[in-house]
Amino acid sequence: MFGSLAIGNSLGSALGPYLSRTIYDLTGSYLAIFVTALGVIVTATLALLVFLRTAHARRPELRRREPPEPRHVPAIVGAELDAFAVAVDVEAA
């Protein structure tokens, strides 16, 4: 999976400046580059949303669950921390 992401990142890094220069040469404007980038971002976001929706529909265990109940911390831990803080203050003085 990470290899696929690395390949996609490398291709984008390699082709991005070339395509941007080509778009600028054809249009003479940087606005066209930004509009194209916005279109790519919107398309990628929509593709991600579709993927997540279909993945959650096929695998219910991916859906959000309720958070677990917080664990109880025994009172003795607080007393030990207070004693440690006093010992540190004494050593620092």
Fold and architecture overview:
With 93 residues, this protein is mainly alpha-helical. It has helices at residues 2-27, 31-58, 75-92. The mean pLDDT is 79. Helices cover 77% and strands 0% of the residues. The chain starts with a helix and ends with a helix.
Major β-sheet profile: none
Question: Would you report the number of β strands?
Answer: 0
Residue stretches low in confidence (pLDDT < 50, at least 5 long) are none
Rg value: 27 Å
**Class of secondary structure makeup:** mainly alpha
Strand content: under 5%
Helix content: over 70%
**Could you give the distance between the termini?**
54 Å
Please tell me what the overall shape is.
elongated
Kindly give the count of domains.
1
DSSP summary: helix tally = 3
The average pLDDT score comes to 79
Element-level helix/strand string:
HHH
Summarize, please.
With 93 residues, the protein is an all-alpha fold.
Record keyword descriptors for this entry.
93 residues, elongated, mainly alpha
Architecture blueprint of SSEs:
Blueprint lengths: L1 H26 L3 H28 L16 H18 L1
